[in-house]
Design goal:
The complex is a heterodimer of chains A (319) and B (302). With 319 residues, chain A is mostly helical. Chain A has helices at residues 2-7, 9-27, 39-75, 79-82, 97-105, 108-139, 143-157, 160-173, 180-204, 209-216, 221-249, 253-258, 267-275, 283-316. Chain A folds into two domains: 2-75, no CATH class; 98-316, MetI-like (MetI-like fold), CATH 1.10.3720. The longest helix of chain A is centred in the first third of the chain and has 37 residues, at 39-75. Chain B contains 13 helices and two strands, in the order αββαααααααααααα. The chains are: A mainly alpha (319), B mainly alpha (302). The interface between A and B is large, with 96 and 99 residues.
């Protein structure tokens, strides 16, 4: 061992380095029984390891954020700069012209309103209906309820593309094709299963003694549900609401097929028409649209982050 | 006596209340999810006129026709490529980044927030973003490659049949790796310290600790995320479609995009329904496989 080490000192340095890095990497800290005694050598390795970690960290953050940063920057650049041969990282003359044109020239504002109405009403409907159903399913174990639970799981897994043509058929029979009400019902039907599964596990975690105590005090079962259980389940309901809102806000497939008049269109499907082959808009305009479509979700996340992580971590990953 | 009837009515009331609470959800899920699914499976055994939606039974003809189409097999292969490469890359990168963000580093919380960003971005914006970056005439990717002298003239990345799908895969990895990071971080944060300590006292090296303790501890979550990601990626329509509308020359047509193409462009609704039904079958097989794996992994952990 000693002999070979003198032969290939460089190689062994890297082997040692790798050994220490991986060792400290896996344990989270450096362990005292390393094959080295020299404190300075040890210190250098420690610093190198941290530098490497920070380097990877910066790389990961840049990879995640840089494309979006570029979209934002391009949205506030005037056309001359967006299409210029030499690109600058920051705009020389930042402008909001793209945003103004977006609202003046296209139907973006209308689509935004439609998406806001649809996402909000779907969220309210799903959270109300699924918390009632999830409560019933968590407290009364009838076989039919169990069967319904299984079926919703199947519905949850179902690819939306399977449903598009039949849904067109169903909505056609109900005279709800090309209507926002029809789309609202479709969204509610496809989000309810998720809501049910997220909230059911949440309700199961709330001790039944709480509502029994309320009922001993003279409350009816429904009052007990409304006044005692719902406040307890609020974090779960909020995380469900955020989830439903964000998937509905960005939904593309159903909207693009079940709605065909431009005035009733939603954001995703509307903006997608910009991308079709005969598009005439500038990239700056499209980037402004991209920023505005994402912004509500980013803000929602920034303000309600802790509920979101509680919901994702607690509801979906058990065990 | 009074007491017994009271209890009885109380029970009936409960049953009625429970039913009332669940009925609206049942109705909506049935009308807008379960029944359409049944219609969809049903329609795969019919010839459907696309103008009138009139249906005439034709047995398994749709399936026979479909299985003879090279386009179907090509789309199946592309779906396979899309699902396996995005899921595996997400998992590897996601676990790596989660382990990194689990270390005590300055700015860790901010990095945790920033790294999750792509997950929040809607599919249509992802398509816009990458189409803009990869644009042949003025995209930043081409400009940078030219500035560094790596290429001489711009490349139309998304117009090339051989590379288009790989850029969609890249965007899929970009968007969904944060999901894995989130799942893994949540699990890493509750890892019992004693486990690692004990293994180390027993003389396990760092790699062994990682292999037998950390990875083992993550395994149930790895399997759950693998299940969720496989199903979602397999059925994912919007990112793939919006990237290049299935083109160039079907190069980004995965199975869901094929269903849309068959139903609305080729006017073969029966064949579209057959494709969708086959997809549902594949999904059921996949999830059954994963559930078996999951039970296996959690048993081993106990």
């Amino acid at each position: 061992m000693e002999g070979t080490e003198t032969l290939y000192p460089g190689v062994f340095f890297f082997v040692r380095l790798w050994y220490i890095l991986s060792m400290s990497y896996a344990s989270g800290r450096l362990i005292s029984q390393t094959p080295f005694n020299s404190a300075t050598y040890y210190q250098i390795l420690k610093i190198l390891r941290r530098l490497l970690l920070y380097f990877i960290l910066i790389l990961a953050v840049l990879w995640a954020v840089l494309p979006l940063f570029w979209v934002f920057i391009s949205s506030i650049k005037p056309d001359i700069e967006t299409y210029a041969f030499d690109q600058t990282i920051f705009p020389k003359n930042p402008t909001l012209k793209n945003y103004i044109t977006l609202f003046r020239v296209t139907q973006f504002g209308l689509w935004m309103r439609n998406s806001a109405i649809l996402a909000t009403s779907t969220t309210l409907l799903v959270v109300t209906l699924s918390s009632m159903a999830a409560y019933a399913m968590s407290r009364f174990r009838y076989q039919l309820f169990e069967l319904f639970g299984r079926m919703t799981l199947l519905a949850y897994m179902m690819p939306p593309i399977i449903l598009v043509v039949p849904l067109f058929f169903v909505l056609f029979k109900m005279n709800l094709v090309n209507s926002m009400l029809g789309l609202l019902l479709v969204y509610t039907g496809s989000r309810l299963p998720v809501g049910l599964w997220m909230l059911r596990s949440y309700f199961q975690g709330i001790p039944i003694e709480l509502e029994e105590a309320a009922m001993v005090d003279g409350a009816t079962r429904f009052q007990a549900f409304r006044k005692v259980i719902v406040p307890q389940a609020l974090p779960g309901m909020i995380s469900t609401a955020i989830f439903v809102f964000s998937v509905t806000w960005q939904e593309f497939l159903f909207a693009s097929i079940l709605i065909f008049s431009s005035k009733k269109q939603t954001l995703s499907a509307g903006v997608a028409t910009f991308l079709s082959e005969d598009w005439i808009y500038s990239w700056g305009l499209l980037m402004a649209a991209a920023v505005l479509v994402s912004l509500p979700l980013v803000l929602l996340y920034a303000f309600l982050q802790r509920y979101l992580i509680a919901g994702w971590g607690g509801g979906s990953v058990k065990g | 006596m009074q007491k017994i009837t009271d209890m009885f009515s109380f029970q009936m009331g409960d049953r009625l209340l429970a039913t009332l609470m669940i009925v609206p959800s049942v109705l909506i899920v049935f009308i807008f999810a379960i029944i359409p699914m049944i219609i969809g499976i049903f329609a795969s055994f019919f010839r459907v006129e696309s103008a009138t939606l009139e249906m005439t039974p034709n047995g398994i003809q749709n399936y026979v026709w479909l299985l003879k189409q090279p386009l179907f097999w090509d789309s199946l292969w592309r779906s396979f490529l899309w699902v396996t490469s995005t899921t595996v890359a997400q998992l590897v990168l996601g676990i790596g980044v989660a382990l990194l963000l689990h270390q005590e580093l300055v700015g860790r919380n901010m990095a945790r927030g920033l790294v999750l960003f792509p997950y929040l971005i809607p599919a249509v914006v992802i398509a816009l973003t990458w189409r803009f970056i990869l644009d042949p005439t003025m995209g930043i990717a081409n400009r940078m490659l030219m500035d560094f002298g790596l290429i001489e003239r711009p490349i139309a990345f998304l117009a090339n049949q051989n590379t288009a799908l790989w850029f969609v895969i890249m965007a899929g990895i970009w968007k969904y790796t944060p999901f894995i990071v989130m799942m893994m971080l949540a699990r890493l944060q509750v890892i019992p310290v004693e486990l690692e300590e004990a293994a180390r006292l027993d003389g396990a090296g760092p790699l062994q600790v990682f292999r037998y303790i950390t990875l083992n501890w993550l395994m149930p979550v790895i399997i759950v995320s693998l299940l969720l990601r496989t199903i979602w990626t397999f059925r994912q329509f919007d990112i793939v479609y919006l990237f290049a509308f299935g083109g160039p020359l079907f190069a980004t047509t995965t199975l869901p995009v094929l269903v849309r193409y068959l139903a609305f462009d080729a006017q073969k609704i029966g064949a579209a329904a057959a494709t969708a039904t086959l997809m549902l079958g594949m999904l059921l097989i996949m999830s059954w496989g994963y559930f078996t794996l999951y039970e296996h992994a959690t048993e081993e952990l106990d």
